[in-house]
UniProtKB/TrEMBL annotation:
Source species of the chain: Tritonibacter horizontis
UniProt subcellular location: Cell inner membrane
Main location group: membrane
Similarity comment: Belongs to the ABC transporter superfamily.
Recorded GO CC terms: plasma membrane
Any GO molecular function: ATP hydrolysis activity
UniProt cross-references to SUPFAM superfamilies, sorted A to Z: P-loop containing nucleoside triphosphate hydrolases
Membrane topology (UniProt): Peripheral membrane protein
Gene3D superfamilies: P-loop containing nucleotide triphosphate hydrolases
Domain ABC transporter: 11-262
Descriptive protein name: Oligopeptide transport ATP-binding protein OppF
Entry keyword set: ATP-binding, Nucleotide-binding, Transport
Length: 344
């Protein structure tokens, strides 16, 4: 399968597994990412959603080469360089790190309390040797601090003097200072107040527009994803079960798991109370995945076929992809999800 033109990151059957000890004499394999094929266009704002344990963070880390890829392939091609991510080592890996960066979730834990804001932002430049003099480093730090709407007078202060939103802007400045083309924001606004979240999301969107940066936005907050991302991928147990342009996905979700996630979005309408479909049970262990469709033990529409046979990804001309044997029947009966709810 070839990638469309203008693709920055492309994965094919990407797998990340971790060997684990199950007992004194047996070993197992934890499949955190299990066969992901996706193309991320240049300049896109791709959201990745799913429950805790669905593999969102591991997917992001695999694309940064922070965890080893154990199967399949992942490539990065920004027009200047092309890397096979599974093969990156030494100088090439260091060079890739200047092109692909990460914004952490917790702006309180992500910044060293012993370093000034100037030193925090300058550190990646110095570690990667991207500037030749202190004056050049300072000029770049001031430029990126201004882009992230930081007060230049504050560069000599320490992180404890700042609020959560200001600290997250410092984290973003540190991620941007090397001029990356690809940035992974892993729950980047989850630890912030709602009003501060909007400020940080606006900044990320502005960076996408002005600098052409491609974002992978990992989040469990569907409202944030709906308002920020151009395209959304839904993950369950290490796989992408549905992906589509944001508007199409939120208007007409096809996979029962996506429908259940969306039905759980809190509404301000008091008449909407009780609409949420509660998924029964926990997400299964990635060390012992169910047969067939891995969602079948929790799916209200599971059939014998679902227990036996894993569904293949079906992608339409509109870019809407879904992995479910019965999505067409469910799309023809949009209220089916409510009928399947257990009676109170
Ligand atoms: Fe549910 Fe079957 Fe579709 Fe899986 S394939 S989501 S079990 S209906």
């Amino acid at each position: 399968m070839t990638s469309p033109p203008n693709t920055l990151i492309s994965t094919r059957d990407l797998q990340v597994g971790f060997a684990i000890r199950k007992g004194p004499f047996s070993k197992g394999l934890l499949k955190a990412v299990d066969g992901i094929s996706i193309d991320i266009p240049k300049g896109a704002f791709l959201g990745v959603v799913g429950e805790s344990g669905s593999g969102k963070t591991t997917l992001g880390r695999a694309l940064l080469q922070a965890v080893p890829v154990t199967g399949g392939s992942a490539t990065y091609d920004d027009g200047e360089v092309r890397y096979d991510l599974g093969q990156l080592k030494g100088a090439a890996l260091k060079e890739y790190r200047s092109r692909a960066q990460l914004i952490f979730q917790d702006p309180y834990a992500a910044l060293s309390p012993r370093m000034t804001v100037r030193d925090i932002i300058a550190e990646p430049l110095e570690v990667m040797g991207l500037t030749k003099s202190r004056a050049e480093t300072d000029a770049r730090v001031r430029e990126v601090a201004a882009t992230c709407r930081l007060n230049l007078e504050h560069l000599r202060r320490f992180p404890h003097a700042f609020s959560g939103g200001q600290r997250q802007r410092i984290s973003i400045a540190r991620a941007l200072v090397c001029g990356p083309r690809f940035v992974i924001a892993d729950e980047a606004v989850a630890a912030l107040d709602v009003s501060i979240q909007a400020d940080i999301l606006n900044l990320l969107k502005q960076l996408q527009r002005d600098l052409g940066i491609t974002f992978l936005f990992i989040s469990h907050d569907l409202s944030v994803v709906a308002h920020t991302c151009d395209h959304v991928a839904v993950m369950y147990l290490g796989r992408i079960v549905e992906s589509a342009p944001t508007r199409a996905l939120f208007r007409a979700p096809r996979h029962p798991y996506t429908r259940a996630l969306f039905s759980a979005i809190p509404s301000l309408d008091p008449d909407d109370r009780g609409r949420a479909q509660v998924l029964s049970g926990e997400i299964p262990s990635p060390t012992n995945q169910p047969s067939g469709c891995t969602f079948h033990p929790r799916c209200p529409f599971a059939t014998e076929r679902c227990k036996r046979e894993a569904p293949q990804a079906e992608k339409g001309a509109d870019g809407h992809m879904v992995s479910c044997h019965h999505w067409r029947e469910l799309a023809a009966a949009p209220d089916a999800i409510r009928q399947a709810e257990p009676a109170e």
